[in-house]
Design a protein that fits this description.
The chain is of the alpha+beta class and about 400 residues long. It has two domains: about 100 residues, OB fold (Dihydrolipoamide Acetyltransferase, E2P) (Beta Barrel); about 180 residues, Orthogonal Bundle (Hypothetical protein af1432). About 35% of the residues lie in helices and about 20% in strands. It has 13 helices and nine strands. It has a five-stranded mixed barrel with strand order 1-2-3-5-4. The protein has a two-stranded antiparallel ribbon with strand order 6-7. The protein has a two-stranded antiparallel sheet with strand order 8-9. Strand 1 and strand 2 form a beta hairpin. The longest helix is centred in the C-terminal third of the chain and has 25 residues. The chain is globular, with a radius of gyration of 28 Å. The two termini are about 50 Å apart.
Protein backbone atom coordinates (compact mmCIF):
# COMPACT_ATOMS: atom_id res chain seq x y z
CA UNK A 1 0.00 0.00 0.00
CA UNK A 2 1.23 3.50 -0.84
CA UNK A 3 2.80 5.17 2.23
CA UNK A 4 3.67 8.72 1.12
CA UNK A 5 1.27 10.96 -0.83
CA UNK A 6 1.91 14.34 -2.43
CA UNK A 7 0.17 16.05 0.49
CA UNK A 8 2.78 14.51 2.84
CA UNK A 9 5.86 15.91 1.08
CA UNK A 10 8.15 18.03 3.24
CA UNK A 11 11.42 19.77 2.34
CA UNK A 12 14.63 17.74 2.76
CA UNK A 13 12.85 14.38 2.84
CA UNK A 14 14.20 11.41 0.92
CA UNK A 15 11.23 9.32 -0.16
CA UNK A 16 10.48 5.99 -1.80
CA UNK A 17 6.95 5.92 -3.19
CA UNK A 18 4.70 5.18 -6.15
CA UNK A 19 3.12 7.75 -8.50
CA UNK A 20 1.13 8.03 -11.70
CA UNK A 21 2.96 9.83 -14.54
CA UNK A 22 0.69 12.68 -15.66
CA UNK A 23 3.18 14.18 -18.10
CA UNK A 24 6.65 13.39 -19.39
CA UNK A 25 9.05 15.63 -21.30
CA UNK A 26 12.71 15.42 -22.26
CA UNK A 27 14.36 18.83 -22.01
CA UNK A 28 17.86 20.22 -22.47
CA UNK A 29 20.17 21.50 -19.78
CA UNK A 30 22.33 24.54 -20.50
CA UNK A 31 25.16 22.09 -21.08
CA UNK A 32 23.19 20.46 -23.90
CA UNK A 33 22.52 17.25 -21.99
CA UNK A 34 19.03 15.82 -21.57
CA UNK A 35 16.99 15.82 -18.40
CA UNK A 36 13.51 14.49 -17.60
CA UNK A 37 10.68 16.74 -16.49
CA UNK A 38 7.69 14.87 -15.06
CA UNK A 39 4.38 15.68 -13.42
CA UNK A 40 3.64 12.93 -10.89
CA UNK A 41 0.27 12.44 -9.24
CA UNK A 42 -1.75 10.48 -6.73
CA UNK A 43 -5.21 10.95 -5.28
CA UNK A 44 -4.09 13.89 -3.12
CA UNK A 45 -2.49 16.04 -5.79
CA UNK A 46 0.34 16.54 -8.25
CA UNK A 47 4.04 17.37 -7.89
CA UNK A 48 6.75 18.48 -10.30
CA UNK A 49 9.73 16.13 -10.62
CA UNK A 50 13.11 16.33 -12.38
CA UNK A 51 15.69 13.68 -13.20
CA UNK A 52 19.03 15.27 -13.99
CA UNK A 53 21.26 12.21 -14.39
CA UNK A 54 21.10 8.78 -16.08
CA UNK A 55 18.20 9.89 -18.26
CA UNK A 56 19.08 7.59 -21.16
CA UNK A 57 18.89 4.55 -18.88
CA UNK A 58 15.25 5.10 -17.92
CA UNK A 59 13.74 7.30 -20.64
CA UNK A 60 12.34 4.47 -22.76
CA UNK A 61 11.23 2.28 -19.86
CA UNK A 62 7.97 4.14 -19.10
CA UNK A 63 5.43 6.50 -20.65
CA UNK A 64 2.74 8.95 -19.63
CA UNK A 65 -0.09 7.26 -17.66
CA UNK A 66 2.27 4.57 -16.38
CA UNK A 67 2.82 3.91 -12.70
CA UNK A 68 6.38 4.30 -11.45
CA UNK A 69 8.20 3.71 -8.18
CA UNK A 70 10.77 6.36 -7.33
CA UNK A 71 13.50 7.26 -4.90
CA UNK A 72 13.73 11.04 -4.68
CA UNK A 73 14.76 14.02 -2.59
CA UNK A 74 12.14 16.64 -1.76
CA UNK A 75 13.34 20.17 -2.43
CA UNK A 76 11.65 23.57 -2.68
CA UNK A 77 11.41 25.41 -5.98
CA UNK A 78 9.39 28.62 -6.32
CA UNK A 79 7.83 28.06 -2.91
CA UNK A 80 6.54 24.56 -3.78
CA UNK A 81 7.88 21.03 -3.30
CA UNK A 82 9.80 19.57 -6.21
CA UNK A 83 11.23 16.06 -6.47
CA UNK A 84 14.77 15.36 -7.63
CA UNK A 85 14.65 11.77 -8.85
CA UNK A 86 17.53 9.42 -8.11
CA UNK A 87 15.97 6.15 -9.26
CA UNK A 88 12.75 5.02 -10.90
CA UNK A 89 11.19 1.92 -12.37
CA UNK A 90 7.92 1.20 -14.11
CA UNK A 91 5.23 -0.70 -12.17
CA UNK A 92 2.60 -3.08 -13.49
CA UNK A 93 -1.02 -2.41 -12.61
CA UNK A 94 -1.17 -5.42 -10.30
CA UNK A 95 1.62 -3.88 -8.19
CA UNK A 96 -0.47 -0.88 -7.18
CA UNK A 97 -3.84 -0.15 -5.62
CA UNK A 98 -5.64 2.04 -8.16
CA UNK A 99 -7.59 3.74 -5.38
CA UNK A 100 -4.33 5.38 -4.23
CA UNK A 101 -3.98 7.31 -7.47
CA UNK A 102 -7.35 8.55 -8.64
CA UNK A 103 -9.19 11.20 -6.62
CA UNK A 104 -12.77 10.24 -5.86
CA UNK A 105 -15.82 11.99 -4.46
CA UNK A 106 -16.17 11.74 -0.70
CA UNK A 107 -19.78 10.71 -1.31
CA UNK A 108 -20.80 7.15 -2.15
CA UNK A 109 -21.75 6.85 -5.84
CA UNK A 110 -24.76 4.60 -5.21
CA UNK A 111 -26.09 6.95 -2.55
CA UNK A 112 -25.77 9.88 -4.97
CA UNK A 113 -27.49 7.86 -7.70
CA UNK A 114 -30.47 7.16 -5.46
CA UNK A 115 -30.68 10.88 -4.68
CA UNK A 116 -30.76 11.71 -8.41
CA UNK A 117 -33.52 9.16 -9.03
CA UNK A 118 -35.52 10.70 -6.17
CA UNK A 119 -35.15 14.16 -7.75
CA UNK A 120 -36.54 12.85 -11.04
CA UNK A 121 -39.34 10.91 -9.35
CA UNK A 122 -40.42 14.08 -7.57
CA UNK A 123 -41.04 16.04 -10.77
CA UNK A 124 -44.60 17.08 -11.66
CA UNK A 125 -44.12 17.61 -15.41
CA UNK A 126 -44.88 14.21 -16.95
CA UNK A 127 -42.97 14.90 -20.19
CA UNK A 128 -39.75 15.96 -18.45
CA UNK A 129 -40.02 13.16 -15.90
CA UNK A 130 -40.44 10.58 -18.67
CA UNK A 131 -37.50 11.95 -20.66
CA UNK A 132 -35.07 11.92 -17.73
CA UNK A 133 -36.35 8.52 -16.63
CA UNK A 134 -35.48 7.04 -20.01
CA UNK A 135 -32.03 8.63 -19.99
CA UNK A 136 -30.97 7.43 -16.53
CA UNK A 137 -32.44 3.96 -17.22
CA UNK A 138 -29.83 3.50 -19.95
CA UNK A 139 -27.24 1.12 -18.39
CA UNK A 140 -24.28 2.68 -20.22
CA UNK A 141 -25.23 6.22 -19.19
CA UNK A 142 -25.86 5.14 -15.60
CA UNK A 143 -22.50 3.37 -15.28
CA UNK A 144 -20.61 6.29 -16.79
CA UNK A 145 -22.42 8.97 -14.77
CA UNK A 146 -21.63 7.24 -11.49
CA UNK A 147 -17.92 7.43 -12.34
CA UNK A 148 -17.31 10.51 -14.51
CA UNK A 149 -15.53 13.67 -13.31
CA UNK A 150 -17.19 17.01 -14.03
CA UNK A 151 -14.05 18.44 -15.64
CA UNK A 152 -10.48 17.57 -16.49
CA UNK A 153 -8.95 19.98 -13.96
CA UNK A 154 -11.11 23.02 -13.14
CA UNK A 155 -13.85 21.76 -10.81
CA UNK A 156 -15.17 18.49 -9.38
CA UNK A 157 -12.18 16.90 -11.15
CA UNK A 158 -12.44 13.52 -9.49
CA UNK A 159 -14.32 10.27 -10.00
CA UNK A 160 -17.99 10.82 -9.21
CA UNK A 161 -17.51 14.57 -9.52
CA UNK A 162 -20.09 15.06 -12.28
CA UNK A 163 -22.87 13.40 -10.32
CA UNK A 164 -21.89 15.36 -7.21
CA UNK A 165 -21.98 18.61 -9.22
CA UNK A 166 -25.43 17.80 -10.64
CA UNK A 167 -26.85 17.07 -7.17
CA UNK A 168 -25.32 20.24 -5.76
CA UNK A 169 -27.08 22.23 -8.50
CA UNK A 170 -30.36 20.43 -7.78
CA UNK A 171 -30.16 21.54 -4.14
CA UNK A 172 -29.26 25.10 -5.13
CA UNK A 173 -32.11 25.23 -7.65
CA UNK A 174 -34.68 24.22 -5.04
CA UNK A 175 -33.44 26.95 -2.73
CA UNK A 176 -33.21 29.75 -5.28
CA UNK A 177 -36.67 29.25 -6.82
CA UNK A 178 -38.18 30.05 -3.42
CA UNK A 179 -37.00 33.61 -3.92
CA UNK A 180 -38.42 34.14 -7.43
CA UNK A 181 -42.01 33.76 -8.54
CA UNK A 182 -42.89 32.03 -11.79
CA UNK A 183 -39.77 29.88 -12.18
CA UNK A 184 -40.46 26.41 -13.61
CA UNK A 185 -38.52 24.22 -11.19
CA UNK A 186 -38.99 21.02 -13.23
CA UNK A 187 -37.59 22.72 -16.34
CA UNK A 188 -34.64 24.09 -14.37
CA UNK A 189 -33.91 20.70 -12.78
CA UNK A 190 -34.03 19.02 -16.18
CA UNK A 191 -31.48 21.55 -17.44
CA UNK A 192 -29.32 20.80 -14.41
CA UNK A 193 -29.34 17.05 -15.10
CA UNK A 194 -28.65 17.48 -18.82
CA UNK A 195 -26.28 20.48 -18.97
CA UNK A 196 -23.01 18.54 -18.52
CA UNK A 197 -24.21 14.99 -19.23
CA UNK A 198 -22.20 14.83 -22.46
CA UNK A 199 -19.03 14.83 -20.38
CA UNK A 200 -19.53 11.11 -19.77
CA UNK A 201 -18.40 10.75 -23.40
CA UNK A 202 -16.29 13.90 -23.74
CA UNK A 203 -13.79 12.87 -21.05
CA UNK A 204 -11.75 9.72 -20.59
CA UNK A 205 -11.18 8.77 -16.98
CA UNK A 206 -9.96 5.19 -16.92
CA UNK A 207 -6.43 6.47 -16.17
CA UNK A 208 -5.57 10.16 -16.00
CA UNK A 209 -8.36 12.56 -16.97
CA UNK A 210 -8.22 13.60 -20.60
CA UNK A 211 -10.41 14.28 -23.64
CA UNK A 212 -11.66 11.55 -25.94
CA UNK A 213 -11.38 12.08 -29.70
CA UNK A 214 -15.17 12.48 -29.78
CA UNK A 215 -14.95 15.04 -27.01
CA UNK A 216 -12.22 17.00 -28.77
CA UNK A 217 -14.11 17.05 -32.06
CA UNK A 218 -17.65 17.72 -30.83
CA UNK A 219 -17.63 18.93 -27.21
CA UNK A 220 -20.07 18.02 -24.47
CA UNK A 221 -22.97 20.22 -25.64
CA UNK A 222 -23.31 18.41 -28.97
CA UNK A 223 -22.98 15.07 -27.18
CA UNK A 224 -25.78 16.07 -24.79
CA UNK A 225 -28.07 17.06 -27.64
CA UNK A 226 -27.47 13.61 -29.16
CA UNK A 227 -28.35 11.90 -25.85
CA UNK A 228 -31.59 13.89 -25.66
CA UNK A 229 -32.53 13.19 -29.27
CA UNK A 230 -32.01 9.43 -28.85
CA UNK A 231 -34.30 9.43 -25.82
CA UNK A 232 -36.90 11.64 -27.53
CA UNK A 233 -37.08 9.20 -30.44
CA UNK A 234 -38.85 6.85 -28.01
CA UNK A 235 -41.31 9.53 -26.81
CA UNK A 236 -43.31 10.51 -29.92
CA UNK A 237 -45.77 12.78 -28.08
CA UNK A 238 -43.07 14.98 -26.46
CA UNK A 239 -44.00 18.65 -27.14
CA UNK A 240 -41.74 20.25 -29.71
CA UNK A 241 -41.65 23.69 -27.97
CA UNK A 242 -40.55 22.01 -24.73
CA UNK A 243 -37.80 20.22 -26.63
CA UNK A 244 -36.60 23.58 -27.96
CA UNK A 245 -36.42 24.98 -24.43
CA UNK A 246 -34.32 22.01 -23.30
CA UNK A 247 -31.96 22.43 -26.24
CA UNK A 248 -31.59 26.11 -25.41
CA UNK A 249 -30.80 25.30 -21.77
CA UNK A 250 -28.00 23.03 -22.94
CA UNK A 251 -26.38 25.31 -25.53
CA UNK A 252 -26.64 28.51 -23.46
CA UNK A 253 -25.48 27.29 -20.05
CA UNK A 254 -21.93 28.66 -20.41
CA UNK A 255 -23.55 32.06 -20.45
CA UNK A 256 -21.26 34.01 -22.78
CA UNK A 257 -20.11 33.64 -26.37
CA UNK A 258 -16.46 33.79 -25.28
CA UNK A 259 -17.08 30.92 -22.85
CA UNK A 260 -18.32 28.62 -25.62
CA UNK A 261 -22.06 29.29 -25.63
CA UNK A 262 -23.49 29.59 -29.17
CA UNK A 263 -26.47 31.38 -27.62
CA UNK A 264 -26.91 33.61 -24.57
CA UNK A 265 -29.50 32.55 -21.95
CA UNK A 266 -32.83 33.97 -23.16
CA UNK A 267 -35.35 33.05 -20.43
CA UNK A 268 -35.11 33.08 -16.62
CA UNK A 269 -34.54 29.33 -16.10
CA UNK A 270 -31.67 29.40 -18.62
CA UNK A 271 -30.06 32.40 -16.93
CA UNK A 272 -30.49 30.80 -13.52
CA UNK A 273 -28.89 27.57 -14.74
CA UNK A 274 -25.88 29.50 -16.04
CA UNK A 275 -25.25 31.43 -12.85
CA UNK A 276 -25.80 28.49 -10.51
CA UNK A 277 -23.50 26.33 -12.62
CA UNK A 278 -20.85 29.06 -12.72
CA UNK A 279 -21.04 29.62 -8.96
CA UNK A 280 -20.95 25.95 -8.00
CA UNK A 281 -18.03 25.17 -10.30
CA UNK A 282 -15.97 28.19 -9.19
CA UNK A 283 -16.58 27.74 -5.47
CA UNK A 284 -15.73 24.04 -5.58
CA UNK A 285 -12.72 24.80 -7.78
CA UNK A 286 -11.46 27.39 -5.28
CA UNK A 287 -11.94 25.03 -2.36
CA UNK A 288 -10.07 22.27 -4.16
CA UNK A 289 -7.17 24.56 -5.09
CA UNK A 290 -6.84 25.83 -1.53
CA UNK A 291 -6.98 22.31 -0.10
CA UNK A 292 -4.24 21.10 -2.44
CA UNK A 293 -2.03 24.20 -2.44
CA UNK A 294 1.58 23.23 -1.86
CA UNK A 295 3.03 26.68 -1.20
CA UNK A 296 5.50 26.49 1.66
CA UNK A 297 5.09 30.09 2.82
CA UNK A 298 2.78 33.04 2.37
CA UNK A 299 -0.90 33.94 2.60
CA UNK A 300 -1.53 33.46 -1.13
CA UNK A 301 -1.56 30.75 -3.73
CA UNK A 302 0.24 31.35 -7.00
CA UNK A 303 -1.53 33.09 -9.85
CA UNK A 304 -4.25 30.85 -11.30
CA UNK A 305 -4.84 31.41 -15.04
CA UNK A 306 -8.17 29.56 -14.92
CA UNK A 307 -9.55 32.07 -12.40
CA UNK A 308 -7.46 35.08 -13.41
CA UNK A 309 -6.24 35.69 -9.86
CA UNK A 310 -4.37 34.21 -6.89
CA UNK A 311 -6.39 33.03 -3.88
CA UNK A 312 -6.06 34.10 -0.26
CA UNK A 313 -5.41 31.31 2.23
CA UNK A 314 -7.74 32.95 4.70
CA UNK A 315 -7.14 30.83 7.80
CA UNK A 316 -3.39 31.27 7.54
CA UNK A 317 -3.95 35.00 7.02
CA UNK A 318 -6.21 35.23 10.09
CA UNK A 319 -3.88 33.11 12.22
CA UNK A 320 -0.91 35.30 11.30
CA UNK A 321 1.28 32.29 10.57
CA UNK A 322 2.60 33.59 7.29
CA UNK A 323 5.98 35.22 7.02
CA UNK A 324 5.88 38.97 7.63
CA UNK A 325 6.49 41.24 4.62
CA UNK A 326 10.16 41.80 3.89
CA UNK A 327 11.41 45.12 5.23
CA UNK A 328 14.20 47.03 3.58
CA UNK A 329 16.13 49.86 5.21
CA UNK A 330 16.19 53.14 3.32
CA UNK A 331 18.80 55.70 4.35
CA UNK A 332 17.44 59.24 4.73
CA UNK A 333 20.40 61.67 4.59
CA UNK A 334 20.62 64.82 6.70
CA UNK A 335 20.14 68.13 4.84
CA UNK A 336 23.17 68.92 2.66
CA UNK A 337 24.75 72.17 1.46
CA UNK A 338 26.93 70.41 -1.11
CA UNK A 339 25.62 68.90 -4.38
CA UNK A 340 24.42 65.35 -3.91
CA UNK A 341 27.02 62.68 -4.72
CA UNK A 342 26.83 58.89 -4.89
CA UNK A 343 26.81 58.91 -1.07
CA UNK A 344 25.48 61.63 1.27
CA UNK A 345 28.17 64.11 2.30
CA UNK A 346 28.64 64.52 6.04
CA UNK A 347 31.38 66.06 8.15
CA UNK A 348 33.75 63.96 10.22
CA UNK A 349 32.12 62.82 13.41
CA UNK A 350 28.64 63.65 12.25
CA UNK A 351 25.92 61.08 13.07
CA UNK A 352 25.11 58.54 10.35
CA UNK A 353 21.98 58.93 8.21
CA UNK A 354 18.71 58.12 9.93
CA UNK A 355 17.39 54.64 8.98
CA UNK A 356 13.67 54.39 8.38
CA UNK A 357 12.12 50.93 7.92
CA UNK A 358 9.84 50.80 4.89
CA UNK A 359 7.67 47.78 4.00
CA UNK A 360 8.75 46.37 0.65
CA UNK A 361 5.14 45.81 -0.35
CA UNK A 362 3.78 49.14 0.94
CA UNK A 363 0.96 50.58 -1.18
CA UNK A 364 2.09 53.31 -3.61
CA UNK A 365 1.21 56.87 -2.69
CA UNK A 366 -1.16 59.08 -4.65
CA UNK A 367 1.87 60.83 -6.14
CA UNK A 368 3.28 57.48 -7.27
CA UNK A 369 0.02 56.62 -9.01
CA UNK A 370 -0.14 59.99 -10.72
CA UNK A 371 3.45 59.65 -11.93
CA UNK A 372 2.63 56.21 -13.37
CA UNK A 373 -0.42 57.59 -15.18
CA UNK A 374 1.65 60.49 -16.56
CA UNK A 375 4.27 58.05 -17.82
CA UNK A 376 1.60 55.98 -19.59
CA UNK A 377 0.17 59.15 -21.13
CA UNK A 378 3.59 60.28 -22.35
CA UNK A 379 4.08 56.87 -23.96
CA UNK A 380 0.74 57.28 -25.78
CA UNK A 381 -0.80 54.40 -23.81
CA UNK A 382 -3.29 56.56 -21.94
CA UNK A 383 -5.35 59.64 -22.95
CA UNK A 384 -4.73 62.98 -21.21
CA UNK A 385 -8.18 62.78 -19.61
CA UNK A 386 -7.01 59.87 -17.48
CA UNK A 387 -5.05 62.29 -15.27
CA UNK A 388 -8.17 64.28 -14.39
CA UNK A 389 -9.19 63.76 -10.75
CA UNK A 390 -6.47 61.12 -10.35
CA UNK A 391 -5.06 62.34 -7.04
CA UNK A 392 -6.18 59.06 -5.42
CA UNK A 393 -5.46 55.55 -6.79
CA UNK A 394 -8.45 53.49 -7.79
CA UNK A 395 -8.77 50.30 -5.74
Amino acid sequence: MKQIYTRDLRPNQVIISEFLVRSKEVRLKKSGENYLSLALADKTGEVDAKMWENVEEVHDTFERDDFIKIKAAVQVFRNKPQLTLHKLRRLEDHEVDLADFFPRSARDSEEMWRELVDVIDGMQNVHLKTLLGKIVANPDIAARLKLAPAAKTLHHAYLGGLLEHILSLCSLSKLVVQNYKGIDLDLLLTGVVLHDLGKIYELSYSRSFNYTSEGQLLGHMILEIEIVHRALAEIPDFPRPLQTLLEHLIISHHGQYEFGSPKLPMFPEALMLHYLDDMDSKIQGMQSILARDQSIEGDWTGYLPSLGRPLLKMQRFLDGNAAAPEVETVAVPQPETEPAMSEPVRSEGAPPPTAVPVAANAAPSAQDWKAKLRQLRDNKLLPDAALTNSSEPRR
